[in-house]
Design brief:
With 333 residues, the protein is an all-alpha fold. It has a single domain, classed as Orthogonal Bundle (ABC transporter involved in vitamin B12 uptake, BtuC), CATH 1.10.3470. The protein has 14 helices and two strands. A hairpin with a 2-residue loop joins strand 1 and strand 2. Helix 2 packs across helix 12 and helix 11 packs across helix 12. The longest helix is centred in the first third of the chain and has 28 residues. The protein is globular, with a radius of gyration of 20 Å. The two termini are 16 Å apart.
Length: 333
């Protein structure tokens, strides 16, 4: 209880500080503030699904950008071809990607489907699950990403019609990009509540800490992994849905998110919500300032340099630093 109250206190203080900085910046230098906070939102949304899958399952999903592609395409096609309203189209994009992730997990990551076929035909499993097999999961998902990009190009061509950007502008900056800041905060809040305040979150944390003990306590770890991968995939699809009005709909659009996503996960550390949000708050200004001053390529180089420095001086990421500071403060209180 004491730890939960402490986490809540620090979380509320952080939210108040971020909102205060946004308000002050919006009054003093609105255009720069909006660009910085948009960069933070971009990084957090790009990384949140990847962070869940990697942090909980130990799977490095190099097809993460293509999962974002699925969400963006599903949203765009549902709006332009079926006439679905944009908010409903975004939900369609997230659900389609979650279902696609579920299929990928059953067929490739866990090997449930090929193993079931193997048991029925030759009496043994054919595939070992990719959980906590970093190199193997990288190779498998990299191959999947290549297939998905070429498949999208074959089926839909080199581009599809784009959705118009909703809303107007404030201080010469699109209101939709400003709205993404609030949506990002809402996504983080939902993810936090899901993994810390629900029975499912308790099962996930137990499985992550000690899978064998969790199984002995009656937790279906295989189902937990399956749902976790679907949730991470759905969040990737929701990211694609949110950015669909801002992107050119091409089969390679997922590559625009991959560097930011992996850098945020490396810098953030083990905690999905704390690590991802704090790494976004640290990396967003770096990306925005360097991109604005020297171009998008320079912004990505700056992010990679930040990741290398984090690996060198913060092996546990920002999460490790936060945990040590919290332990010291609670130990001294």
């Amino acid at each position: 209880m004491k730890q939960a109250l402490s986490q809540a206190r620090y979380g509320i203080a952080a939210v108040v500080a971020v909102v205060a900085l946004f308000v002050i910046g919006a009054l003093a230098a609105p255009n720069l503030t909006f660009r910085v906070y948009y960069a933070v939102s971009f990084i957090v949304l790009a990384a949140i699904g990847l962070a869940i899958i990697f942090g909980i399952m130990g799977v490095i999903n190099l097809a993460h950008g293509e999962f974002i592609l699925v969400g963006a395409y599903a949203t765009t096609l549902s709006v332009t071809k079926l006439g679905v309203p944009l908010p409903a189209g975004m939900l369609v994009g997230a659900l389609v990607t979650a279902l696609f992730g579920l299929v990928v997990e059953r067929v490739i990551i866990s090997g449930y489907v090929p193993n079931w076929i193997g048991q029925q035909t030759v009496g043994r499993d054919l595939i070992k699950p990719f959980y906590d097999r970093l190199a193997d999961s990288m190779v498998a998902t990299f191959g999947l990403s290549l297939i998905m990009v070429q498949g999208a190009r074959i089926v839909f061509g080199n581009s599809i019609n784009q959705i118009g950007v909703p809303f107007g502008s404030t201080a010469g900056y699109p209101d939709y990009r400003i709205a993404l800041v609030g949506i990002t905060a809402g996504v983080l809040a939902v993810v936090y509540l899901l993994f810390t305040r629900t029975d499912f979150g308790t099962r996930v944390r137990a499985t992550m800490q000690d899978e064998q003990t969790a199984m002995a306590l009656g937790i279906n770890t295989e189902r937990t992994y399956m749902l976790t991968f679907a949730i991470g995939s759905g969040l990737a699809g929701f990211t694609g849905a949110l950015f669909a009005p801002l992107l050119s709909m091409q089969p390679t659009l997922g590559s625009q998110f991959l560097v930011e996503a992996f850098v945020a996960v490396v810098v953030g550390g083990a905690s999905v919500v704390v690590g991802t949000s704090l790494s976004g708050l640290m990396l967003g200004p770096i990306d925005a300032l360097f991109s604005d001053e020297f171009g998008e390529f320079a912004g990505r180089i700056a992010l990679l340099v930040a990741a290398m420095l984090a690996l060198r001086f913060l092996p546990g990421g920002i999460t490790g630093v936060v945990d040590r500071l919290r332990d010291r403060m609670e130990g001294g209180s």
